[in-house]
Write a structure and sequence with these properties.
The protein is α/β, with parallel strands linked by helices and about 400 residues long. Helix content is about 45%, strand content about 15%.
């Protein structure tokens, strides 16, 4: 049979996983109810009747002490050899106050909940119930954030609620204590709260467009840009904004994940080499001009390198991989290292048969082959051959 301590631990687990839900519910006048079966067992009782009677007595005493917060229910039994005609079958906890009394560390949980209720009341008085309910769903903010951090989020939500457009950089928002880094780190949470407050779906990325926030230009690091930036030397390595690339005309582009590999790549000057962007390469999908070119891509031979390849193919019409196959992995397997990352989902589309086979091999072997371990002469030769193949 479950003991008081067992039920207290169950209550604590349920509370910790749902405290934000309980906060919203109680603030809306909903009742707290927790019920669980105690599962008394005749065989168990017979094996240790002294302990069973002690637990029985503990439950009946608890019910008297916490009534009406705790209701103990019984069922009739015919355990004559044990001298029992009824045993506790279920316990129903009807108030959060009673639940806290049963939980381990119930006092600290109770104080935390009361503090969250005070925050809810403060927000409701200051900004209205809609804002209060939206914030109440943010568990860590209501229960764990410092006063300064809580005030910061509330100030951001209220300012954006009251201003349909910002037309400025985040740094220019007239909200004390809010800087670019804060909003970047808390953008998803801010979007969730604003979605409820404004009654419209707002994504983390959508905040920028929705409030017309200005963002710094995305800079693309590139070699061989002289053909579309007059005055550059062919070998100059520069960082250019996407707006320049929007006007760039080239039949072929090389994209190399590793910066040093891209700097050393030996290909003709009329082929721009974009390098060292990592996942930021997704920003290139804004460039319609790349749809008119053939892209040659090489990343690390690992799960993420292949995911980036698949995402490029989802954005652009002609993308060819270079040295991203099982043959390359086998040839340089002695240079591969263990992959510490957890297996990720295979892209649903965007990989050719040989690339899918490589993805499966990398996952099963738990290996990754970084492109900078492959001799530079091999990489340059592979790119030159690939470029000639599309002449």
């Amino acid at each position: 049979m479950k003991t008081i301590e067992d039920v207290g631990r169950l209550l604590a687990k349920r509370y910790d996983a749902n405290r934000a839900k309980f906060l919203r519910g109680l603030c809306l006048g909903e009742e707290f109810v927790f019920e669980t079966a105690l599962n008394p067992n005749r065989k168990e009782a017979a094996s240790d009747i002294v302990r069973f009677r002690r637990d029985f007595l503990n439950w009946t005493n608890t019910e008297k002490q916490l009534a009406p917060g705790v209701e103990l229910r019984f069922r009739e039994v015919s355990w004559k050899e044990l001298g029992l005609s009824r045993v506790p079958s279920h316990v129903c906890v009807k108030t959060l106050t009673a639940a806290f009394e049963l939980m381990p560390q119930g006092d600290s949980r109770s104080r935390s909940f009361v503090a969250a209720q005070d925050r809810f009341a403060l927000v409701r008085e200051r900004a209205g119930e809609t804002v209060a309910l939206a914030l109440a769903g943010e568990d860590k903010v209501m229960f764990e954030a410092s006063e300064a951090e809580f005030e910061r989020l509330l100030s951001v939500v209220l300012w954006l609620r009251d201003h349909p457009a910002a037309d400025c950089f985040i740094r220019e928002l007239p909200i004390e204590g809010v800087d670019t880094k804060w909003l970047e780190n808390n953008r998803a949470m801010t979007a969730r709260v604003l979605s409820i407050v404004l009654g419209e779906p707002i994504s983390s990325e959508g905040i920028v467009a929705r409030w017309r926030l200005k963002v710094p230009p995305v800079l693309v690091r590139v070699r061989h840009a002289a053909r579309f930036v007059p005055g550059l030397n062919p070998e100059d390595f520069v960082a250019l904004p996407l707006s320049i690339f929007a006007r760039a005309k080239a039949e072929k582009f090389c994209i190399v994940e590793n910066l040093q590999t891209g700097l050393a790549l030996d290909v003709p000057y009329d082929v721009p080499v974009i390098c060292g962007m990592g996942n930021a390469i997704r920003s290139l999908r804004q460039l319609d001009t790349l749809n008119e070119a053939t892209i040659f891509y090489m990343g690390d031979l690992d799960q993420h390198g292949l995911r980036i390849l698949a995402s490029l193919r989802a954005s652009f019409g002609s993308v060819q991989s270079v040295l991203m196959d099982c043959t390359t992995l086998e040839k340089f397997r002695h240079l591969a290292v263990n992959d510490p990352t957890e297996p990720i989902a295979m892209p649903a589309e965007g990989l050719a048969a040989g690339e899918l086979k490589l993805f499966e091999e990398l996952q099963s072997s738990r290996l990754r082959l970084e492109q900078e371990r492959i001799p530079m002469s091999v990489i340059s030769r592979a790119f030159v051959e690939a470029l000639k193949g599309t002449s």
